[in-house]
Amino acid sequence: SSSSCRLLYLHYFPGSLEIDSLCCFHLQDFKLEFGHHQGRTSSVWHGGTATIAQSPGDEVWGIVWKMNICNLSSLDKQEGVEDGIYVPVEVNVHTQAGKALTCRSYQMKDYVSGPPSPQYKKVICMGAKQNGLPTDYQEKLEAIETNNYAGPVPIMEEIEAAVKAEKINSA
């Protein structure tokens, strides 16, 4: 098919790419982790950012987006592949209906574990709620420890404004 599935594991997704459809998935034997690439804290989020790590018995829930393969380079760029922070990986996921899909995802290279900022966690929890991920998984996300960063996070304001605008448009 001309579109490649990509697993959006809780990254904020600016709507700049052509997206066809989406559904909930779970990725078995992986867990959600937060870290700093080469030990450096994200200057955007002021804390650890998300990645997936192999972990037998665990699972990660998220959204599968169907997108055009010609958007792959812009997706890679958005995910920090060019900067050597994330590397694309192929993973096998299952939808809630049990359908198996092979998807593209991204794993952080060479990272040191560290908690996310409360703002980054909030975006992840907002995304999980908005996309109807299982309630017990949402509770797990709510329980994530943060680094208690209380300074400004300009991107957070942009995201909240975009979410508000979306609510107004869909009302």
Sum up the structure in keywords.
single chain; 171 residues; alpha+beta; Hypothetical upf0131 protein ytfp; six-stranded antiparallel beta sheet; 4 helices; 26% helix; globular
CATH homology superfamily: Gamma-glutamyl cyclotransferase-like
Number of helices, counting only DSSP H or I runs of 4 residues or more: 4
Percent in strands: 35-45%
- CATH top-level class: Alpha Beta
Structurally, the number of domains stands at 1
**Which CATH-level-2 architecture?**
Roll
The profile of the biggest β sheet is: 6 strands, antiparallel
Helix content: 25-40%
- The structure class reads alpha+beta
Low-confidence stretches: 1-19
Q: How many strands appear in the DSSP assignment?
A: 6
How many angstroms does the end-to-end distance come to?
Answer: 34 Å
Q: Give the overall silhouette.
A: globular
What is the string of SSEs from the N terminus onward? EEEHEEEHHH
Average pLDDT level: 82
CATH topology: Hypothetical upf0131 protein ytfp
Gyration radius, rounded: 16 Å
Task: Give a quick rundown of the structure.
Its EC number is 4.3.2.9. The chain has helices at about 70-80, 120-130, 135-140, 155-170, and strands at about 5-10, 20-35, 50-70, 85-95, 100-110, 110-115.
What features would you describe in this structure?
This protein is of the alpha+beta class. The protein has a single domain (3-170), classed as Roll (Hypothetical upf0131 protein ytfp). It is 26% helix and 39% strand. The chain has helices at residues 72-78, 118-130, 135-142, 154-170; strands spanning 3-8, 19-37, 49-68, 86-95, 100-108, 111-113. Strands 1, 2, 3, 4, 5 and 6 form a six-stranded antiparallel sheet that branches. Strand 4 and strand 5 form a beta hairpin. The longest helix is centred in the C-terminal third of the chain and has 17 residues, at 154-170. It holds the Pfam family AIG2_2. This is gamma-glutamylcyclotransferase. InterPro entries: G-Glutamylcylcotransferase, GGCT-like, GGCT-like_sf.
